[in-house]
Amino acid sequence: MSRLSRGGGHVFFRNLFSAIFNKVRAPTGLKRAKMLDGYSNTYVPWNGNDYDNACVRDCVDTIARHMSKLRARHITRKNGNIINVPDDSLNYLLSTRPNWMMTASDFLARITAQYYTTNNIFVYIQRDETGNVIAFWPINFNSLELYEDKENTLYCQFTFGGGDRTTVPYDDIIHVRRHYCRDDIFGDPNNQLMRDDLNLLQSVKSAIINAVKNGGKLRGIINWNGTLREEDQKSRWKDFIESFTVDNGSGIGALDNRGSFQQLTTEVDTFDSTQMEWARDNIYKHFGLNEKIIKGLYTEEEYQAFYEGVIEPLAIDLAQEFTHKIFTMRQRGFGHEIVFESNRLNYMTVSSKCKLAAAMIPAGAIKRNEIRELFGYAGLPGKEGEEIVVSLNYVKSQDQSAYQIGKDTGDDDTSKKGGEDDET
Q: The dihedral of CA 163, 168, 173, 177: what is its sign?
């Protein structure tokens, strides 16, 4: 694969493998890492082609689309409170363009698809010479082997489809796992667990296809008048079949007086719609979904359950892994953190939004722009939209005490309470 880039009016191509790993220099003297369960230090992604199944792809795509709406941010906290959102290149990478090939939404959708098809996410953190993060790359590979050096530092050796190979420190790999049970490092594959349900679904689909095909067939017995040789019976039977199956769309067969046709009308149940629903539900449950979520027909409560059961756990895993792998222990100690946020309020009904706003405004717990965003309106420019308002005549929060005691706030005509005139 190559890169197409425009710079200074010039267009050039660059090998993708070199663009990502050109500065990687693996140390010498590495040996294969030994895990607690022995030397099971090789990982090959599950290639059962589950993603090619329509039902599985619907499930993965549904989760990926909702995950792609999350917003990743670099923040700093103090005493549990967010005190700053740095305007730095890291925030640009996380929220806009993790690498030159992907938007932030593309990035989240792809790693989500990897998560649910291979039960592992692998993202390489690309840094410059000074150690600053310059890109995040989701990577697909043919195989992975674990190595360690004399200091027991863990390394990952990736082998790609084109035969390229690179070895990078495990600390430079964002690794999130699903079904993390038996292996020391990797999530367990779906293989037989998923394969049984996929085979069941395919069997039900085959039954539907056969039912449709058999529905247009003529079933019965031909009684020949007189005694015929076996070869004559086959010849006349063939003539009858061909007369019935000609491409004229009539569905009518022809038979002379040398034989009579007795139709068999016994109905055989070959398909039940509940079978398909049951087979699909077996696939849905692997992903924590149901038909309403897949079709986008969910209620507010149903989406809340979907978010808390599927989206939020993965968002928490990603936030913790990004935070640990991007920042040093000292930086984490100073409150640097990566968070993945979602505005779940967008899925609330208008009635619920009104109740929420009515509850938060009196307490001064919501900004004017947040109220406007809640109802789908554009934010106000400047500081005006970032002001917190309260129920005391909906004044600025920093002025409410002055209004209560009638103190002059410095604004015109603000020395009177609530617009009272001099006589009052």
A: positive
Distance (Å, rounded) from C-alpha 132 to C-alpha 326?
Answer: 9
pLDDT, tens digit, for every residue of 135-193? 999 999 999 999 999 888 999 999 998 888 999 999 999 999 999 988 889 988 877 66
What lies within 8 Å, CB to CB, of 192 at 6+ separation is none
Instruction: DSSP for 90-133, please give it.
Output: HHHHHHT-SBTTB-HHHHHHHHHHHHHHHSEEEEEEEE-TTS-E
Burial 33-42 (b: 16+ CB within 10 A, else e): beeeeeeebe
Tell me how far CA of residue 238 lies from CA of 187, 253, 308, in angstroms. 58, 11, 63
Nearest residue to 119 (alpha-carbon basis) of 35, 51, 196, 21:
51
| Helical segments of 125-258, H only | 191-215, 230-244
Distance CA 152, CA 148 (A): 5
Query: What Cα–Cα distance (Å) separates residue 362 from each residue in 248, 261, 328, 330, 394?
Result: 76, 85, 41, 40, 9
Whole-angstrom distance, CA of residue 287 vs CA of residue 194: 11
What is the reported pTM?
Answer: 0.73
CB 393 within 8 A of CB 418: yes
